[in-house]
Amino acid sequence: MRQRRRGSGAAFGLYGAAASILAKLERREGSLKTLVYGSPFPNTRLLFALVSETRRYSSVLDSIIDAAGLFRAEKKLQPHLAKVLIYDLLIGKGLRGGGRGKALVLKHHARLQAELARLKVQKKVSRNEDLLPPTGESDKALQMPRYVRVNLLKTCVDDVVDYFKRQGYSYQGKTASMEEAILSRKKFLLDLHLPDLLIFPPQTDLHENQLYQAGHIILQDKASCLPAFVLNPTPGSQVIDACAAPGNKTSQLAAIMKNKGQIFAFDLDAKRLATMSTMLVRAGVTCHQLAHQDFLATDPTDSKYSKVRYILLDPSCSGSGMVNRLAEEESTFPPMRLQALAGFQRKMLAHALQFPALQRLVYSTCSVHKEENEDVVQDVLEQEGSAFRLVEVLPSWTPRGLPVFPEAKCFLRASPEETLTNGFFVAVLERKHKACAASSAMLLSEAGSKLETNPKPATRNRKKKKQMAFPNK
């Protein structure tokens, strides 16, 4: 088999893969996330970004292409390929690599550029992003802050704050309300609830930042940080992350545990697990054991898991809370598919509660559907009610669960409208016979968390950590 040449071939592979995904999305052959991870193109982050941004600018690109008469002049140019190429040429980072599609598009570069300029004049705007119309859910994604979790395994909050201040950002301190989290350019905040989470303006791109590349910061939505935060496993404990990929929650668990103890991380998708392994190495996680295995196939009585006291269960779900989902994906979700997912989630939760040493479990989804959230927990608790109870956590958090369950106050919900995050659901279950008053009291107070807003050990070792984190200062 001929090897693809580096550079031009790889870049053309990116455009071909992106064009293929755009076509499949139009035919409703899967979600954006599923199609990206299923693509043979190796750089999933780059591919996801290109497809997402091309979709975001779709109406703008259509106007430019039509006005330039591109398809009348180039009848052999595939429309989806043309769209991703023109996005990168006019709006993105510039065309990379070669290929016939690039050559055909470049023949019309001047005309395409002129039509973009004409469109800006017509709309009386100067920036490309100002051409975008408000489009419901996609507009919510544009308004959501960029959340940055400080990786306490490699650095501390103070050092990261200092780094961004040196980069020209203005630090606003700890936010008092979520309304304050709507920031203007070059400003950032410390989160109200999570002491290792920083908030940056919407659309801040830190993928090329040296702290991200070195694993000192993790780009993770605030709602996604909640499950590990409220599970709060103690250092030295044994934990199961039942559906672990892509690994952000696993790395957060390791940070909470200070890399002491063991995390058994399961996932069925080999490709996602491989990506996760790379991410965990970059984040400095050493207390994990990855398993390419179905969590449902594990034996809770296996001596290997006899000391597992904590489980984080974030099973496959509809993803209906993700605001960057395409409009056609989120308009309706087939009831039969929803029931099938809920059935799977009930099996996963019931199975997790069978581990004999289990003391605390967090169940979470990125779904807004009651069927996958309150209903699942209620159904399983009716089966396992004699052994486990719900625990109220983060009392200052709103919104809580839907009022269809007597203990709705024990659930956490998140939404772009109320929390400026993706839609999310979190429930904490504890074994009833456990003497858990102290741990529950700790969880009832955000200030009682083991995660530190201004960790004194990190401050004492500040000089040493800075040398490690910022060698090129």
TrEMBL record:
Keywords: Acetylation, Methyltransferase, Nucleus, Phosphoprotein, RNA-binding, rRNA processing, S-adenosyl-L-methionine, Transferase. The lineage of its organism: Eukaryota, Metazoa, Chordata, Craniata, Vertebrata. It is found in: Nucleus, Nucleolus. One of its GO terms (cellular component) is nucleolus. SUPFAM superfamilies: S-adenosyl-L-methionine-dependent methyltransferases. Transmembrane segments: none annotated. This is 28S rRNA (cytosine-C(5))-methyltransferase. GO terms for biological process: cerebral cortex development; cognition; oligodendrocyte development; positive regulation of translation; regulation of myelination; rRNA base methylation. Its main location: nucleus. S-adenosyl-L-methionine binds at residues 243-249, 267, 294, 314. The active site is at residue 366. It comes from Laticauda laticaudata (Blue-ringed sea krait).
